[in-house]
Amino acid sequence: MIPSPLSRPAVAADLPFLSAEPLDLVGLLAKSHHPEAGAVVLFSGEVRDNDPQTDVDYLEYEAQEAMAAKSIKQILDDACEKFPLKIALAQHRVGKVGVSESAVVVITASPHRAEAYSANRYIIDRIKHESPIWKCEYFKDGTKEWGGNCNCQKITGDANKHVYEWTEEKK
Amino acid sequence: MTIEVFAVLKDYFQKEFQLQSSAKNISELKLQLTRQNPEAANVLDLCRFAVHDEFVDQNFSINPNDTISVIPPSSGG
């Protein structure tokens, strides 16, 4: 039997899209090998401390969990239709995440690297703009700030239209 | 109806609350929430609304037993 190009290994199907526990990057990568994939790309979005004024202590992520899970699933399904992926998975943290910890992981595997990179970027880009997940920065001085909102609707005039970093490859 | 808010909106409203409302659609509900808390007007203006976990538009009809999520612009990743 020829495997369907959309078939995904069990790791992707069983993986919860949101996790209150630290993301197991190494474990996820270890399970992200496929005999027809010559390229595996792992993106980890990590908490950084680069605010010159106030030091970031930690971030806290909140989600409308049912909708965020549905959104991530839809984005992965769309990516699998758009690109020849053998593996596509994504998981986002909720709750408290410390500096240098991973807040979101996206793994893509495809026969060649161009598609694995493109698909990975497509997925993370859409998750950041579309999935109902929010971060709050907690600073060492005890203050907090909800931030980094997608503000595309100021440009597009529509809360459902976004300006993505990812763009179709120009041939 | 039950209203649940997220992220920065929690600075203005309880995370989840019951609202006595005669709002017939999302647009009227948004107006009511804005009147209830004018300081939240700018944020509410950028929000999307969802009924029973599905995004809906401003004209969507709502009922007293609905659970409505007020969804600010995303900031995940």
What does this structure look like?
The complex is a heterodimer of chains A (171) and B (77). Chain A has 171 residues and is an alpha+beta fold. Chain A has one domain: Alpha-Beta Complex (Aldehyde Oxidoreductase, domain 3), CATH 3.90.1170.40. Chain A contains five helices and eight strands; from the N terminus they run αβαββαβββαββα. Chain A has helices at 10-14, 25-30, 65-82, 113-130, 153-156, and strands spanning 18-19, 39-46, 56-63, 87-93, 95-98, 102-110, 133-139, 144-147. In chain A, strand 7 and strand 8 form a beta hairpin. With 77 residues, chain B is α+β, with helices and mostly antiparallel strands. Chain B has a single domain, classed as Ubiquitin-like (UB roll). Chain B is built from two helices and five strands; from the N terminus they run ββααβββ. Chain B has helices spanning 26-36, 41-46, and strands at 2-5, 16-18, 48-51, 54-56, 67-71. Chain B is globular. The N and C termini of chain B lie far apart (32 Å). The interface between A and B is medium-sized, with 33 and 19 residues.
Helix-strand blueprint:
The complex is a heterodimer of chains A (171) and B (77).
Chain A: H1 10-14, E1 18-19, H2 25-30, E2 39-46, E3 56-63, H3 65-82, E4 87-93, E5 95-98, E6 102-110, H4 113-130, E7 133-139, E8 144-147, H5 153-156
Parallel strand pairs in A: 1-4
Antiparallel strand pairs in A: 2-6, 3-5, 3-7, 4-6, 7-8
Helix pairs in contact in A: 3-4
Chain B: E1 2-5, E2 16-18, H1 26-36, H2 41-46, E3 48-51, E4 54-56, E5 67-71
Parallel strand pairs in B: 1-5
Antiparallel strand pairs in B: 1-2, 3-4, 3-5
